[in-house]
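Please fill in the sequence for the structure shown.

STRUCTURE ENCODING:
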């Protein structure tokens, strides 16, 4: 074997390694683009005016030879133009936090460090930060510190799936991991008609089938009806079916309603069901004393989904799956029968969830917490609730707007109703669909919609720390003006 003398000739650095000087100069220019974008954000349309064809047409196969830095910067600038700006104070759709500056820097540092948080050895500090963060969240939710723990996943849908996998194995017996569910009694999951569709998807993925999902009707406030839940559980027991879990929602997607968690927890212990609380959105309320009490009973959950990329303002993706007894997740996911117990130093997070290799997403939550302090989140979450109530009160003052659901957290649903004109339910739906499409088309506001009892409603969700009263006033003005204009043409 030839003797390699590594000192004999100067080494040529890999062309894939940027020298420090280029990293700095390029970084400064990228930072300037980002800072300028955030500075001008409010003056920009909330979403791009470019068509799909135009965006597709701007892309080609990757070049064989490198682009210049100027070309790279031009490409990056174009991304800002062709995106929907979730950080814009007029972005009020779905449930998408606006991202924070510290979490953008955390993304960069996480990429530089490139930890594989699947294993402790490949990510010692990152694993411990993730575990510490989960312990803190478990404490906020009132779970027992001795056993509780959790992990970060790519979204609330995956967190719901992970939690229900653990529930399935706990209830059917861990042997079902080997035999499959076909060897078990038929088992069912209960959730309200207002549940997020990811619960149905989880039932499908877990081999239970979507028919194993019992959709329980809701009350006038869009909360799961306890009497009907208990009837359904009893009826299934009579039929020899195994009631497996209840998924209660703390902050439904459409209206933000909160299921009666304490009462659901009581039924779960009465009939020995796993209680999963989908607090993907509403979990943030636990930091605000004004609304935290509405989630009373969540401390009795066996598992909780909480999306930091929703009402915690962190950039996507950052969902937290938290367990009352984290060891159950280990039993459900470890593929080694002698999985490492959580109290040893060698805790590998890939043993506690479906992912194998995992990134350092915890840093994107941790750094903002260090940089703002928890009280800043407490204040802003309370402000979001106040803003939603302000919007509700402004809508109630007007003849041409109709409130469509009471505000529970920071979502407000309403519609435009042309005054002095009787309209069929069909026409009102059509009119409000038109308003939503038009305000999005002109890029002035980005709202979303919901269908409540067959009525199409405009839906505003405030999880954006840049949104203030004046923006909501402008939104109502825009809806009414657009409604008036469309009423003439309808
Ligand atoms: C109540 C609820 N659960 C789960 C989800 C899914 O979360 P994600 O989009 O992060 O996967 C959502 C999404 O809006 C939601 O509102």
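FILLED IN BY: designer on duty
SEQUENCE:
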């Amino acid at each position: 074997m030839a003797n390699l003398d590594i000192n004999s000739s100067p080494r040529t650095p890999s062309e894939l390694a940027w020298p420090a000087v280029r990293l700095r100069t390029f970084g400064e220019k990228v930072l300037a683009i980002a800072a300028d974008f955030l500075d001008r954000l409010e003056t920009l349309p909330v979403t791009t005016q470019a068509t799909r064809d135009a965006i597709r047409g701007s892309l080609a196969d990757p070049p064989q030879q490198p682009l210049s830095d100027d070309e790279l910067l031009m490409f990056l600038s174009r991304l800002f133009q062709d995106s929907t700006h979730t950080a814009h104070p007029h972005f009020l759709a779905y449930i998408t936090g606006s991202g924070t500056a510290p979490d953008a820097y955390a993304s960069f540092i996480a990429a530089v460090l490139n930890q594989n948080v699947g294993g402790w050895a490949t990510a010692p500090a990152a694993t411990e930060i993730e575990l510490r963060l989960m312990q803190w969240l478990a404490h906020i939710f009132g779970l027992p510190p001795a056993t509780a723990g959790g992990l970060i996943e790519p979204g609330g849908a995956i967190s719901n799936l992970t939690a229900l996998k653990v529930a399935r194995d706990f209830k059917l017996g861990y042997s079902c991991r080997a035999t499959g569910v076909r060897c078990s009694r038929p088992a069912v999951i209960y959730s309200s008609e207002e549940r997020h569709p990811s619960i149905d998807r989880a039932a499908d993925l877990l081999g239970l089938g979507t028919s194993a999902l019992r959709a329980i009707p809701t009350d006038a406030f869009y909360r799961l009806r306890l009497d009907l839940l208990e009837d359904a559980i009893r009826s299934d027991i009579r039929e020899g079916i195994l009631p497996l879990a209840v998924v209660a929602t703390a902050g439904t997607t459409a209206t933000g309603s909160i299921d009666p968690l304490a009462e659901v927890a009581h039924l779960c212990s009465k009939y020995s069901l796993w209680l999963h609380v989908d607090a993907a959105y509403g979990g943030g309320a636990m930091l605000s004393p004004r609304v935290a009490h509405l989630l009373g009973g969540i401390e009795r959950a066996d598992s909780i989904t909480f999306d930091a990329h929703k009402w915690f303002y962190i950039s996507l993706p950052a969902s937290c799956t938290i367990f009352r007894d984290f060891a159950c997740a280990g039993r459900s996911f470890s593929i080694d029968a002698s999985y490492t117990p959580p109290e040893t130093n060698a805790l590998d997070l890939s043993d506690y969830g479906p992912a194998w290799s995992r990134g350092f997403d915890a840093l994107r939550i941790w750094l903002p917490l260090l940089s703002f302090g928890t009280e800043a989140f407490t204040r802003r979450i309370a402000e979001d609730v106040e803003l939603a109530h302000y919007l509700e009160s402004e809508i109630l003052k007007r003849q041409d707007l109709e409130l469509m659901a009471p505000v529970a957290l920071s979502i407000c649903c309403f519609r435009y109703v042309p005054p002095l004109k009787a309209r069929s339910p069909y026409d009102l739906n059509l009119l409000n669909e038109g308003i939503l499409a038009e305000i999005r088309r002109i890029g002035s506001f980005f709202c979303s919609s919901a269908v409540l009892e067959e009525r199409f409603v405009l839906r505003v969700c405030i999880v954006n720390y840049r949104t203030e009263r004046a923006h909501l006033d402008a939104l109502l003005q825009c809806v009414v003006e657009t409604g008036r204009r469309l009423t003439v043409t309808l």
